[in-house]
């Protein structure tokens, strides 16, 4: 049986409209002492909103272009940072002994946390990872780094990129320490500028030592909410109660025994105000996750580069909006997030952070963790408004962000999504806009460039720049003939075969259901 182009496109659109039933809305939680989170990924919701996995098909298409594409990349996840070795796998791959490892100092990843105000006081979520970093020779680091590089040898890179690749490789090949007691030293000497950091102030009290209620997991993780004692500061000051201030308060905290690596800044966030939850890859920095070779070089070797003038947009929001809390949420695994945090704090406003725990590794778990972390912060701050920022290359963002509107009514102020396919011809992946059906247009916007976000009254919920054509069809969309939201680029000459091949794939999938 022969199919016409019209019938194929019709099947594509029909297939794109197939959707699972929307989850029942849940009421926003009241502020409370949150129990220690379970890191068992089986307890999380499974992947939602991705009707079809294009990874297998696109892998065969793009292999002819010299790029290996997996379902991770098709979902907007950097495949080169998945299935990283941990624990004994690192020891065996490096051929190191336990005695060699015992001689290495203990180190810590201390992820910048947030705190909410409860009836018991400030409730601080402290999370991170305890590990040891083996001593690895440069030759061995070169060999290990080359495993991650596509069509490139580390010795062919400029010297500064070689050094960064080796540093990141050494961060990957660490041995996590399980069943370790973690003690946190908190001091009130954080440096902030109230004129630029959304009015944040250094806490006047709160210096204390906290023993985490649970030892580290098998993967070396620690993650618990703890209640802060309102201790007196050096000048007789105290932590301001959250129900008596609209200012963010900032504290420094250190992991005892890992002072050279385990420092972070904590943000005590008042119950009301606005929090910006921002993805990082391809919205704050140039990553090109959708182009595996370039994405790997941009993440592994090249210096992190801001995406256009996005730092100016965030800086303006930070200066002009009081009590604005920035929270950076990336699904990049813990081992490689130090570069992310260093880049953010040198380029964007200060803020808390979330990363992917080590035991979330396959596609489904990786795409579930974002929603899990979004739900956690929404439930922790039920009276705050949230502005969600991301891009269309992440399928979890395309499903999770609109679901937050439905699951947490009146908490999502704005959704801003960069349409990567409208400005970057190397983004060939479709995305699904069905989740935005029924959401008022002034609550979300697909945009091309950072300047599209200027002159918006986001404090009062005016999130739409009417000069930016949206073209949202509430179904499968994408570059080159699939109907790109906020416009599209002209297709390259070879795209015709890809788009029709994708149409046939969708048609077969539709006929088999």
List keywords for this structure.
APP1_cat, alpha/beta, Phosphatidate phosphatase APP1 catalytic domain-containing protein, disordered C terminus, 28% helix, disordered N terminus, 513 residues, six-stranded parallel β-sheet, ten-stranded mixed β-sheet, phosphatidate phosphatase activity, globular
Description:
By secondary structure, the chain is an alpha/beta fold. Helices cover 28% and strands 19% of the residues. Strands 1, 2, 3, 4, 5, 6, 7, 8, 9 and 10 form a ten-stranded mixed β-sheet that branches. A six-stranded parallel β-sheet has the order 13-12-11-14-15-17, with helices on one face. Helix 10 links the parallel strand 12 (324-333) and strand 13 (352-356). The longest helix is centred in the last third of the chain and has 18 residues, at 363-380. It is globular. Residues 1-80 and 490-513 have low confidence and may be disordered.
């Amino acid at each position: 049986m022969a199919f016409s182009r019209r019938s194929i496109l019709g099947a594509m659109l029909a297939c794109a409209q197939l959707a699972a039933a929307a989850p029942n809305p849940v009421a926003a939680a009241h502020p409370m002492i949150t129990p220690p989170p379970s890191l068992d990924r089986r307890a999380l919701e499974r992947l939602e909103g991705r009707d079809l996995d294009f990874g297998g098909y696109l892998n065969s298409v793009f292999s002819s272009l010299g790029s290996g594409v997996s379902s991770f990349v098709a979902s907007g996840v950097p495949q080169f940072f998945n299935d990283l070795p941990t624990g004994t796998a690192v020891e065996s791959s490096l051929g190191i002994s336990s005695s060699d490892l015992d001689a290495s100092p203990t180190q810590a990843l201390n992820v910048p946390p947030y705190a909410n105000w409860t009836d018991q006081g400030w409730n601080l979520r402290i999370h991170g990872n305890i590990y040891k970093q083996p001593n690895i020779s440069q030759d061995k680091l070169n060999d290990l780094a080359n495993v991650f590089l596509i069509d490139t040898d580390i010795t062919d890179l400029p010297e500064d990129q070689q050094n960064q690749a080796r540093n990141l490789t050494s961060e990957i090949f660490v041995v996590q320490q399980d069943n370790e007691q973690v003690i946190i030293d908190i001091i009130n000497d954080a440096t902030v500028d109230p004129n630029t950091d959304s009015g944040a102030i250094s806490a006047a009290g709160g210096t204390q030592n906290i023993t985490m209620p649970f030892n580290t997991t098998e993967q070396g993780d620690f993650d618990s909410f703890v209640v802060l004692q309102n201790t007196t500061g050096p000048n007789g000051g105290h932590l301001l109660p959250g129900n008596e201030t609209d200012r963010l308060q900032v504290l420094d905290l250190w992991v005892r025994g890992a002072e050279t690596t385990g420092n972070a800044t904590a943000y005590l966030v008042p119950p009301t105000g606005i929090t910006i939850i921002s993805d990082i890859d391809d919205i704050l920095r140039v990553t090109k996750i959708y182009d595996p070779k370039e994405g790997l070089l941009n993440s592994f070797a090249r210096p992190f580069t801001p995406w256009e003038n996005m730092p100016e947009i965030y800086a303006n929001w930070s200066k002009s909006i009081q009590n604005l809390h920035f929270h950076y949420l990336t699904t990049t695994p813990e081992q490689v997030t130090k570069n992310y945090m260093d880049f953010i704090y040198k380029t964007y406003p200060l803020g808390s952070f979330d990363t992917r725990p080590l035991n979330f590794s396959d596609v489904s778990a990786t795409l579930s963790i974002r929603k899990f972390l979004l739900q956690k912060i929404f439930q922790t701050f039920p009276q705050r408004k949230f502005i969600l920022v991301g891009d269309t290359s992440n399928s979890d963002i395309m499903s999770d962000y609109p679901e937050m509107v439905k699951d947490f009514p009146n908490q999502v102020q704005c959704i801003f999504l960069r349409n990567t396919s409208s400005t970057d011809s190397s983004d060939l992946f479709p995305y699904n806009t069905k989740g935005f059906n029924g959401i008022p247009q002034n609550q979300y916007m697909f945009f091309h460039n950072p300047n599209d976000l200027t002159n918006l009254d986001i404090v009062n919920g005016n999130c739409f720049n009417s000069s930016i054509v949206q073209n949202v069809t509430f179904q499968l969309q994408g570059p080159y003939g699939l109907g790109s939201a906020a416009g599209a680029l002209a297709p390259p000459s070879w795209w015709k075969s890809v788009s029709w091949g994708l149409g046939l794939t969708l048609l077969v999938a539709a006929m088999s259901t």
